[in-house]
Amino acid sequence: MKRACTPAVPRRRGFTLIELLVVIAII
After folding, report:
1. What CA–CA distances, in Å, run from 10 to 2, 23, 26, 27?
2. 3-state SS record for the chain
3. How far apart are CA 18 and CA 2, in angstroms?
4. Tens digit of pLDDT for each residue in 1-27?
5. b/e map of 6-27 (b: 16 or more CB within 10 Å)?
6. Given this model, what pLDDT does residue 23 score?
7. Can you give the pLDDT at residue 1?
8. Measured on CA atoms in the order 6, 12, 13, 19, is the torsion positive or negative?
9. How far apart are the first and last CA of the chain?
10. Angle subtended at Cα 26 by Cα 14 and Cα 20, rounded to the nearest 5 degrees
11. With a threshold of 0.70, does the pTM exceed it?
12. CA–CA separation, 22 vs 14, rounded Å?
């Protein structure tokens, strides 16, 4: 259920914010 919906659906909605937070935290 999550593997079929994790190629571009959550990557554009919930992954962008998480990735941005991670990048900011690393910096």
Report:
1. 10, 18, 22, 24
2. CCCCCCCCHHHHHCHHHHHHHHHHHHC
3. 17
4. 455 555 555 555 556 777 788 888 988
5. eeeeeeeeeeeeeeeeeeeeee
6. 83
7. 47
8. positive
9. 34
10. 25
11. no
12. 13
